[in-house]
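Follow-up to my post from last week.
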Amino acid sequence: MSDILLQIDGKEVTAREGMTVLEAARAAGIVIPTLCYHEKLEPYGACRICIVEADMNGRKSLVASCVHPVEAGLIVRTTSEQIHRIRKTIVELLLAHAPDSVQLQALAQQYGADKDYYEKQASFCIHCGLCVRYCTEIKKKNAVGFVDRGTRREINFVPHLAAQECWNCKECFPLCPTSYLQAAYVLVEALTIPQPPFKVAAGR
Amino acid sequence: MPRLQSPEALESIRKELASKRDSQRPCISVCAGTGCIAAGAGEVIAAFKAEIEKQGLQADVDTKGTGCPGFCERGPVVVIYPEEICYLQVKPQDVVDIVSQTIKEKKVIDRLLYVDPTTKAKAVRESDIPFYRNQRRTIIGNNIKIDPKSIEDYLVIGGYTALAKVLFAMTPEQVVEEVKTSDLRGRGGAGFPTGKKWEGARNAPGDTKYVIVNADEGDPGAFMDRALLERNPHSVLEGLIIGAYAIGAHEGYIYVRQEYPLAVENVTLAIKQAEEYGLLGKDILGSNFDFSVTVHRGAGAFVCGEETSLLMSLEGKVGEPRTRPPYPVTKGLWGKPTTINNVETWANVPLIINGGAEAFSSVGTEGSKGTKIFSLVGKVNNTGLVEVPMGITLRDIIFEVGGGIPGGKKFKAVQTGGPSGGCIPEAHLDTPVDFDELTRVGAIMGSGGMIVMDEDTCPVDVARYFVEFLTDESCGKCVPCREGIRQMHTILTAITTGKGKEGDIQRLEHLAEVTSTASLCALGKSAPNPVLSTLRYFRDEYEAHIKEKRCPALSCKELIAYHIDPEKCQACMICLRKCSAGAIVGGKNQIHVVDQDKCTKCGTCFEVCPPRFGAVQKISGEPVPAPLPEAERTTVRKANTNE
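User reply:
Got it. Predicted complex:
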């Protein structure tokens, strides 16, 4: 493992091969906001709030820092007008789901996001996948997972697994950035409302 | 069939097959592509076989179901060789005449020929029809000459010569170099230089490498890849084997959607035949090069056309994109270097090897070489599959090849690149077909979908349609794509149903920026294109919807009303009888009136009102005129003089 030299916000940063830009930045004390990131879990790259500008030999692109590998000579900017705009919109889109989430409210304040800018959505879930990934990667139980795709994508507990595993665990609850609500609600729904074991995507 | 052990053996079998074919022997070729099959080609082929037998001509005439010539609008297409007489929209009842007159007496049947809509001139041969004359059919031109289920047909027209050439006369590096020199760019959409991709995979460390055909064609209205796999599967296969040799892969996959049963069937058969001939499998043509191919059927998720999602799906996982880098050329299928190219890209490879890179790149523009296949659909006279040289203008495709807009309507826009593409208006019709030029006007080349729209099409509704498609087809993993598309769809639906509000355009622009820059994969990054391009060229129509609740194209149901002009209504009862909602009040000699509360806006009254009356009107953005008082509705008919 050789050291890699890169630049983040004008600061020379040394990182190890295989590290992500986010890890390198954190190690150097540079703060990049995250939502779906968790240090115990595999990087997921879904919320995109950790977006930064990566400049490799003059080729600039916007990348999710939690999944983008460090490279020698990479020049990273963690803030810019555009990055600010993108983060603001992402927060606004998520506030349409979970306007009361403390974590989102803090980000809203930081980026000047308006919780009423986009139309409210029925589900609290922001699909960060923390509960799903925690259950899969750490607990290795697969009791909660994603179903369907596109705008119909939701998290769902697998009733027969949840009935066995979840009552004594519930470790995914505090991970939920929408304040337990989604995970708790969906779990209760899975266990109390009789339903077929798996939802089948309509028409496909 | 013993496996061929050398290129010489391949040549000798080719000569042997060719010698058995008599080019002067009459042959009835019926297109057996999906379009013509749907139009009844199967019955036509059966009728030909029966009639030939009845007339005792089996020994003198061949009948064959071939690949598609592309003129789907006029299918089933029948071509009689050796004269190359082309008959269109042939029905089983025409078969007797064709056999007794054209085959036996060499007479042309006038009523089945193509008639030019403007000059009324008839075209006897395929090459005389403007639809074909203005194309350059280097890839699909062979379709009509071969039975896609016959490797022998492909061998007779020179199939697998390119493979023999690379295996015995070129090093893999030379093959990569040749493809690089040709400047071939990927036909799947993004236009990445194919040679560069191959070089990346060739140079990537590792012994196990893969090549993949991306046949997960999902754009609404597009069928280029389907056509190639169905109609000339060996051309794709030959390209794939050459690519495998070039990058050093010994295993390949054809990822094709399950919804393409004929493509799956034909390509599976092609693989089996190629294996039997020793053109696939161990020690191909005695060259020591091993390569095998597996057909993998996709379940029809649009996102699996995105290369990293395709890889996930191939690996048996949920079809969701992976982060790039690492790119598939270094870390692809099961973490091994992988080259994924589109069907059409692979089909170009044998042409480049046979004809040389220079000949290939002599066609096209500075940045885009060769030809491109488009599926030309929508409001255009000649719908079908067309292959044109890069650099041809959109105007030439739509008006020369496509024959213009039907029904005397005006052209409004053309959508290239499917849901990821953009709407190009009249003002940019002289844009050449070129990866970079199309991007410059806000669309993309895409994989070749080309949807023509006339003046009755509402651009806001078009944007809504494509975004709606993506609400289903986004994988839903990343926020900018899933939530951006969700909100864009909500806003566009509101606008097209008269609930648009101030700030909606601005909101759409914010969403478009974020979705196009921050999404995880190309699906999200290109998702806002239909919105951005229609906003760019038809902003006034967005504003009319929002501010005046008016749909200028008179297309958005919620914003229009049907009204019968009492001055023009002849009380003929046609619309009244046809209205399925019973929304038309009137009777014999009673001026008809639309009951707006009952009207479902299906448009039937508008369509059936005789054009010489033109009494039914669509109105938008203004109040519906008050109905005539009942007492004044009785018409006094003069004698039938002004009919």
